């Protein structure tokens, strides 16, 4: 059986690309990195995926690596930060080398996609698979997309389409016939895309932003609380993919779009006079950016569906220690 160090060498060192700002990478007591320009701050974020809670036990190792990196990098996107470095702590019940080789392949591909460099980590054994990624990025102080900047009168936007990931999870847990639309939805769950380019382009435009990891309404509520404002959301304006509409009712799709989570799209607020800039950005990035409501006084999140108050039947997002639906 290979030692811990042989495993690190084979499957993690090989995923770490050389970079000018990584003075000393994997293999020593610490990684040594060159800090970014002095007028930039280091954005830091940590995310953990626990088997049975965040991923199904039979997920492929490549998909798991992709999800971990995307979910972590998504926080950098939501801050308007440029990805720099990633550290990976991994706990595994055994040293299955075929699994590790596939994980390493997925890791390498995801790191390359987001131009983020693996600089270190920790490898341990334990009864449940647990993966933690710590990411660092760079952002100019005045351009950081904090949750606290939303102003009364700002418009609320979301990127892409919502609910797909939750629908994809549903499809994975049921035996459904293979189809192009089902494949699209399961890929949205297994291979989410962190909106790095969007975050960077929004950083001088948006007043606040968050990535949609727990569900649109739950995540928008974080912006409202931090900013001390309320909002009105028109649920029928929330963008749905043609795939979700082909497989599920409008009511089900909108419920997942509102509360499903893990789409890793961005929800952001912008002053009204910037609306045209957002529209041209959408065209340039070839990414839907849809206005779904506006920021108001007070502290309430009011959700209307075709003019009438919308009463969600399920929970409003995922909360590990709350009553939210478990996933
Ligand atoms: P230490 O005992 O000093 O914590 P380790 O033996 O845990 O060092 O790790 C050896 C080297 O391999 C370190 O540079 C560490 O950052 C790196 N490393 C360990 N596990 C991983 C991993 N899963 N991904 C990336 N780097 C790792
Ligand atoms: Mg260690």
Report on the architecture of this protein.
The protein is globular. The longest helix is centred in the N-terminal third of the chain and has 19 residues, at 61-79. The chain has 327 residues and is an alpha+beta fold. The strands form three sheets. The protein has a seven-stranded mixed beta sheet with strand order 8-10-7-11-9-12-13, with helices on both faces. It has a four-stranded mixed beta sheet with strand order 3-6-4-5. The chain has a two-stranded antiparallel sheet with strand order 1-2. The protein folds into two domains: 4-143, 60s Ribosomal Protein L30, Chain: A (2-Layer Sandwich); 155-309, Alpha-Beta Complex (Phosphoribosyl-aminoimidazole Synthetase, Chain A, domain 2). Mean pLDDT is 93; it is low at 323-327. 34% of the residues lie in helices and 24% in strands. The chain has helices spanning 4-12, 61-79, 97-113, 164-173, 180-190, 196-202, 216-227, 242-247, 250-259, 275-285, and strands at residues 22-24, 32-33, 41-50, 82-92, 117-125, 130-139, 155-159, 208-211, 230-234, 266-270, 289-296, 301-305, 308-309. The chain binds adenosine-5'-diphosphate and magnesium ion. Adenosine-5'-diphosphate (ADP) is lined by residues 8, 12, 26-29, 88, 90, 118, 120-123. Residues 8, 12, 26-29, 88, 90, 118, 120-123 line the site of adenosine-5'-diphosphate (ADP).
Major beta-sheet overview: 7 strands, mixed
Counted beta strands:
13
What global shape is seen?
globular
Ligand list: adenosine-5'-diphosphate, magnesium ion
Mean pLDDT: 93
Strand content: 15-25%
Give the structural class.
alpha+beta
CATH class annotation of the largest domain: Alpha Beta
Low-pLDDT regions = 323-327
Strand arrangement within the widest β-sheet reads 8-10-7-11-9-12-13
Could you give the distance between the termini? 34 Å
The whole-angstrom Rg is: 20 Å
The helix/strand order is: HEEEHEHEEEHHHEHEHHEHEEE
How much helix is in the residues? 25-40%
Q: Might you state the CATH topology name of the largest domain?
A: Phosphoribosyl-aminoimidazole Synthetase, Chain A, domain 2
Number of helices: 10
The domain tally reads 2
The CATH architecture designation of the largest domain is Alpha-Beta Complex
The CATH homologous superfamily of the largest domain corresponds to PurM-like C-terminal domain
């Amino acid at each position: 059986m290979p030692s811990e160090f042989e495993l690190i060498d084979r499957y993690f060192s090989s995923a770490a690309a050389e970079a000018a700002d990584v003075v000393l990478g994997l293999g020593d007591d610490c990684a040594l990195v060159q800090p970014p320009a002095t007028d930039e701050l280091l954005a830091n974020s940590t995310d953990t995926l626990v088997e049975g809670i965040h991923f199904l036990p039979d997920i492929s190792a490549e998909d798991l690596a992709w999800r971990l990196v995307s979910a972590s990098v998504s926080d950098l996107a939501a801050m308007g930060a440029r990805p720099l470095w990633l550290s990976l702590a991994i706990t595994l019940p055994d040293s299955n080398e075929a699994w590790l080789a596939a994980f390493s392949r997925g890791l390498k591909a995801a790191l390359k996609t987001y131009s983020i460099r693996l600089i270190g980590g920790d490898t341990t054994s334990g009864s449940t698979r647990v993966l933690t990624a710590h990411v660092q990025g760079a952002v100019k102080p005045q351009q950081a997309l904090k949750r606290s900047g939303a102003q009364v009168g700002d418009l609320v936007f979301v990127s892409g389409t919502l609910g797909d990931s939750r629908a994809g999870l549903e499809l994975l847990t049921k035996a459904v016939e293979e189809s192009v639309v089902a494949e699209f939805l399961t890929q949205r769950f297994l291979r989410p895309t962190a909106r790095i380019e969007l975050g960077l382009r929004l950083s001088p435009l948006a007043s606040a932003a968050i990535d949609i990891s727990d569900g649109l309404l739950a995540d928008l509520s974080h912006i409202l609380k931090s900013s001390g404002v309320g909002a009105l959301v028109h649920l029928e304006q929330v963008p749905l993919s043609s795939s979700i509409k082909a497989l599920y009712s409008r009511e089900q799709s909108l419920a997942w779009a509102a509360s499903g989570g893990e789409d890793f799209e961005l929800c952001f607020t912008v002053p009204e006079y910037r609306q045209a800039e957002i529209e041209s950005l959408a065209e340039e990035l070839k990414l839907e950016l849809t206005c779904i409501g506006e920021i108001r006084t007070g502290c309430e999140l009011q959700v209307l569906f075709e003019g009438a108050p919308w009463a969600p039947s399920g929970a409003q997002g995922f909360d590990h220690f709350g009553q939210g639906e478990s996933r």
